[in-house]
């Protein structure tokens, strides 16, 4: 039995399905932990196979390879160095489990399974895994260690059970996706409660990095049994921290370490967009991105996000003017590209618009110019940008915000065309907030310019699609501050028309917005992926039928 443990918490990124690469990264971290004198290295949830692996875990070949990779990893611990706690998938008695293994002295020494399986929002674990029994602690160097896995600490039963069975400290591995204000919820709302309930210190280790529409912020930490914060790791970056744990007269305690500052709002949102895009582009092996730069705020901030994610040299902005594009838009787009430092060119779409007008003249005879012709312009832009993507390889970014996507103020097969949308879960007022913030600050993980990234005129001008003369977004929509307030109620909080009317919104406007929200579902179902920021993103969290007749009014 020992009275002192040195534990390295390895807050790492991971690649779903790349077991060899994930294992190599863990072994490299173990080498560094050995140099730091660690007894044990802990890695995040499902670090070996990547999280969430979704239906990959249902493939027998995937499960078999995971088992082989874990045995190979365990064999590396025969050298007398630190033991490893590794999250992976396991099969026991024909059932598939999300679990954690202690790799020690060359073998898989002990295994525990996740008991509480989340089945809400982005999580779908009930259809993939069987819950494990209430886990008992493992024994390492004579110390009883409880190993709750992610969701296990969001309910009291697992930690209480571990404490009742003699656990002396808790090491909780996580794959907890970023949501606005979630770091506070994890620490104050969950971890401190479990620590105080049990009287046991708790290390909360979270993964970092992007995976399709999810992004993980890291921000791992340790709280002691009295609820005090002992260690706070950084967010949005990989980090390894070596912690010292000591047996005292009143139980085990983690020595106080560094308390890293976490990104404030809205830097946290901006970092989520940057890291998610960086990993999406990199892991899908695109050389960079291309996007239409219109002189408006949405495309400008997307260009800035891309530059911070990939570096300005991997961002290609294209202005696609029509006869309705103002000189102000041309000037602002040119200056924005210069400030970001990215490649920029102009491709007028008038020749293609004229060709379509001629081609459709017979079919459209005696019909007034309307939204159809507006959408043709948008689709010509989409075709042009996709041609550049196909010819030269960069992924096309779309730039529509969540306010527009909510009410269908986007052209399917036009400005919705592309491979990824950084603003998919960002309401218009959030776009304004992060644009103003980025013009004054550079994110800590940013690769873009140090100074402002867009002319102030882009932020202050009235939003417009410029698909007809003197067009403004507010010709068709309520002011964005009003629209976003209604959408927050309808989408994020599932409020009814009556509830929002009681809160002071105009009933007729709310009824109209609810209708637009419902009939635009078919568009959103065909939209590209984009990073989740809030509690109810379209696609993973909010799963509505395309065809339905329910209205709350």
Please, could you describe this protein's structure?
- With 553 residues, the protein is α/β, with parallel strands linked by helices.
- It has 16 helices and 19 strands.
- The protein has helices spanning 19-35, 60-75, 156-164, 182-198, 267-283, 297-310, 327-340, 350-360, 371-392, 402-407, 428-438, 456-460, 480-492, 497-502, 507-519, 521-525, and strands at 4-11, 40-42, 83-92, 95-104, 107-113, 138-140, 143-146, 169-174, 202-206, 208-211, 214-217, 221-223, 229-232, 239-248, 251-254, 289-292, 315-319, 343-346, 395-396.
- The protein has a seven-stranded mixed sheet with strand order 5-4-3-2-1-14-15. The protein has a six-stranded mixed sheet with strand order 6-7-8-9-12-13, with helices on one face.
- A hairpin with a 5-residue loop joins strand 12 and strand 13.
- The N and C termini lie far apart (66 Å).
- Pathway: Cofactor biosynthesis; NAD(+) biosynthesis; NAD(+) from deamido-NAD(+) (L-Gln route): step 1/1.
- InterPro entries: C-N_Hydrolase (IPR003010), C-N_Hydrolase_sf (IPR036526), Gln-dep_NAD_synthase (IPR014445), NAD/GMP_synthase (IPR022310), NAD_synthase (IPR003694), Nitrilase/CN_hydratase_CS (IPR000132), Rossmann-like_a/b/a_fold (IPR014729).
- Deamido-NAD(+) binds at residues 375, 404, 523.
């Amino acid at each position: 039995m020992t009275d002192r443990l040195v534990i390295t918490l390895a807050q790492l990124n991971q690649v779903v399905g790349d077991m060899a690469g994930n294992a190599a990264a863990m072994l490299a971290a173990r080498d560094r932990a050995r140099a730091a004198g660690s007894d044990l290295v802990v890695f995040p949830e499902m670090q070996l196979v990547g999280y969430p692996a979704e239906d990959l875990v249902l493939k027998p070949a995937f499960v078999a390879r995971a088992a082989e990779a874990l045995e190979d990893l365990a064999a590396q611990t025969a050298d007398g160095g630190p033991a490893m706690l590794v999250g992976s998938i396991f099969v026991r008695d024909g059932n598939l489990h999300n679990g954690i293994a202690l790799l020690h002295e060359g073998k898989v020494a002990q295994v525990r399974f996740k008991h509480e399986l989340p089945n809400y929002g982005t999580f779908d674990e009930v259809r993939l895994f069987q819950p494990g029994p209430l886990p008992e602690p493992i024994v390492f160097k004579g110390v009883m260690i409880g190993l709750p896995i992610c969701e296990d600490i969001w309910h009291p039963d697992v930690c209480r059970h571990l404490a009742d069975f003699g656990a002396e400290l808790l090491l909780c591995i996580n794959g907890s996706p970023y949501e606005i204000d979630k770091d506070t919820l994890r620490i104050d709302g969950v971890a401190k409660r479990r620590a105080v309930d049990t009287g046991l210190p708790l290390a909360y280790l979270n993964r970092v990095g992007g995976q399709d529409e999810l992004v993980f912020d890291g921000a791992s930490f340790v709280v002691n049994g009295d609820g005090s914060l002992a260690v706070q790791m950084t967010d949005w970056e990989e980090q390894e921290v070596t912690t010292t744990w000591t047996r005292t007269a009143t139980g085990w305690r983690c020595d106080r370490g560094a308390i890293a500052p976490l990104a404030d709002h809205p830097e946290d949102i901006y970092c989520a967009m940057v890291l998610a895009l960086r990993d999406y582009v990199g892991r899908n092996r695109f050389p960079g991105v291309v996007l239409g730069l219109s002189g408006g705020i949405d495309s400008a901030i997307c260009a800035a996000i891309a530059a911070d994610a990939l570096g300005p040299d991997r961002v290609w902005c294209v202005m696609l003017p029509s006869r309705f594009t103002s000189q102000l838009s041309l000037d602002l787009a040119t200056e924005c590209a210069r400030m970001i430092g990215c490649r920029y060119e102009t491709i007028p779409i008038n020749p293609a618009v004229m060709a379509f007008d001629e081609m459709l003249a017979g079919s459209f005879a005696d019909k007034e110019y309307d939204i159809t012709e507006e959408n043709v312009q948008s689709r010509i832009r989409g075709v042009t940008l996709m041609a550049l993507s196909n010819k030269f390889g960069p992924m096309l970014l779309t730039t529509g915000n969540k306010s527009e996507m909510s009410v269908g103020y986007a052209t399917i097969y036009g400005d919705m065309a592309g491979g990824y949308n950084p603003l998919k879960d960002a309401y218009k007022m959030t776009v304004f907030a992060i644009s103003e913030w980025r013009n004054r600050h550079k994110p800590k993980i940013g690769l873009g310019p140090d100074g402002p990234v867009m002319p102030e005129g882009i932020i202050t001008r009235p939003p417009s699609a410029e698909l007809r003369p003197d067009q403004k977004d507010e010709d068709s929509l309520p002011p964005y501050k009003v629209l976003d307030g209604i959408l927050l109620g309808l989408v994020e909080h599932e409020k009814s028309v009556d509830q929002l009317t009681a809160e002071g919104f105009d009933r007729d406007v709310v009824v109209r917005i609810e209708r637009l929200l419902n009939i635009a579902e078919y568009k959103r179902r065909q939209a590209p992926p984009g990073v989740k920021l809030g509690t109810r993103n379209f696609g993973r969290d909010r799963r509505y039928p395309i065809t339905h007749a329910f209205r709350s009014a």
